[in-house]
Specification:
Blueprint lengths: L1 H14 L18 E2 L4 E2 L6 H15 L10 E15 L6 E14 L2 E15 L4 H28 L5
Parallel strand pairs: 1-3, 2-3
Antiparallel strand pairs: 3-4, 4-5
Helix pairs in contact: 2-3
Length: 161
């Protein structure tokens, strides 16, 4: 019984994307710490740059890599696109929110890595406008977390890997 419980727990954890390594644990060229200024917003959606910046900062903070002005490198980002729309299919109307972010890891004037990350998150309509907006807000939070995860992972990978 104990083995079965351990197996079920392990399968659940792997399926949910949990990892046994620290996210953002390694950075190129021996960089130990980063600062993350507020991203630039070139989309038409107001304030999403703050949400994405906070999610990226949180990822680096959990990895023990976030620092202020004394950081060795800087993670600069631009929200290039942020959209919402109808996703077709299913009995109940489904909507999606998608985003594209360009992020650069710089040490002084040297660009160490530059990546472009895109993600899509879906949500369903609610029984009323308030529930639909609540679902949209939850999808937005999930989207920013997915973007942050991908940004940190991709900046951690050495070029050409």
């Amino acid at each position: 019984m104990r083995r079965a419980l351990l197996l079920v727990t392990w399968v659940w954890a792997v399926g949910c994307g949990y990892r046994l390594v620290v996210p953002g644990g390694s950075l190129p060229l021996g960089v130990k710490s980063v600062q993350v200024p507020v991203f630039e917003n070139r989309s038409y959606e107001p304030n999403v740059e703050a949400l994405v910046t906070e999610a990226v900062r949180e990822r680096y903070a959990r990895a023990g890599r976030l620092a202020g002005e004394a950081a060795e490198a800087t993670v600069n980002g631009v929200v290039i696109d942020w959209r919402g729309g109808v996703a077709f299919g299913g009995a109940r109307p489904t909507y999606q929110v998608s985003a594209t972010v360009r992020v650069t890891l710089k040490k002084g004037d040297q660009v160490l890595r530059e990546v472009i990350v895109s993600q899509i998150e879906t949500f369903t309509t609610g029984a009323d406008v308030l529930l639909t907006e609540s679902n949209r807000g939850a999808a937005t939070r999930r989207l920013t977390e997915l973007l942050a995860r991908d940004v940190v992972e991709q900046l951690s990978v050495p070029p050409g890997a």
